[in-house]
Amino acid sequence: MAIEPVTELGARGALRLPRARVVPLSAPPASYTAAVERYLTGAGIAKSSARVYQISLTTWGWMFAGEAAPTGPARRGAKPPVFPLAAIDDPVLPEVLAELAAARADEMDADTVNRELSIARKAIGWWQRQGWVSVDPTIGIERRPAPPDRTKALAENQIADLWRLDVALREKTFWKMLYESAARADEVLCLNVEDLYPQDKRGRITAKGGATEWIHWQSGTAQLLPRLIARRTRGPLFLTGRRAPAGTATLDVCEEAGRARLSYRRAEEIFEENTRLVANPIASPEDIEDLDGWTLHRLRHSALTHDAENGTSTPMLLARSRHASVRSLERYARPGVDAVARHVAERDPAARRKG
Question: Which end of the chain is more exposed for a tag (fewer CB within 10 A), N or C?
Answer without folding.
Answer: C
